[in-house]
Write a structure and sequence with these properties.
By secondary structure, this protein is mainly alpha-helical. It has a domain of 90 residues. It has five helices and no strands. It is elongated and about 125 Å long. The termini are far apart. InterPro entries: TatA/B/E, TatB. Pfam families: TatA_B_E. Belongs to the TatB family. It is a single-pass membrane protein. It is found in: Cell membrane; Membrane.
């Protein structure tokens, strides 16, 4: 790179003052400054684009390595599944010949299959709302409309003591 020190910049400024003249020097300096700013921004954009391209290439390589690892895992799983199927068929080959041809449900429970309880309807009428019952009906039938605290409930149902 070109090494520009203070003495060289001063020499360039003196030559520019003599050649261009003091009237046009400020306008030329502003133009040179804007052009240098544009050039710096352009160089920064090019650097950023190159960095993005390099990162994109690295991401593509990483993606390929992850995909190849996933393919390896998938193939090992398929191989293990195939080995298991072969071993399973060898082990169960003797059981198929010994078992009866009819299905007995009690055999299914003894093998270890899960037993689920039978569905029972809750026998509730969800359309009836408690709040839809009128207050006078609740009072007549003895349905509680307010909650009692424990102390109030004990006091209400405490037998009355007789005084002699």
């Amino acid at each position: 790179m070109i090494d520009l020190g203070i003495s060289k910049l001063a020499l360039i400024g003196v030559v520019a003052l003599v050649v261009i003249g003091p009237e046009k020097l400020p306008r030329v300096a502003r133009t040179v400054g804007t052009l240098l700013g544009k050039a710096q921004r352009y160089v920064a954009e090019v650097k950023a684009e190159v960095n993005r391209t390099m990162e994109l290439e690295e991401l593509k390589k990483m993606k390929e390595s992850v995909e190849s690892a996933a393919r390896d895992v998938e193939s090992s799983i398929h191989q293990t599944a195939n080995d298991f199927e072969k071993e399973w068929s060898e082990v169960t080959a003797g059981l198929e010949n010994a078992s009866s041809t009819t299905f007995n449900p009690s055999d299914a429970y003894s093998i270890g299959s899960p037993v689920y309880p039978e569905y029972k309807h809750p026998k509730k009428n969800f359309r009836l709302k408690q709040k839809a019952v009128p207050q006078w009906f609740k009072a007549r039938t003895g349905i509680r409309t307010r909650a009692l605290s424990g102390a109030a409930r004990v006091a209400r149902f405490r037998p009355k003591s007789r005084s002699f």
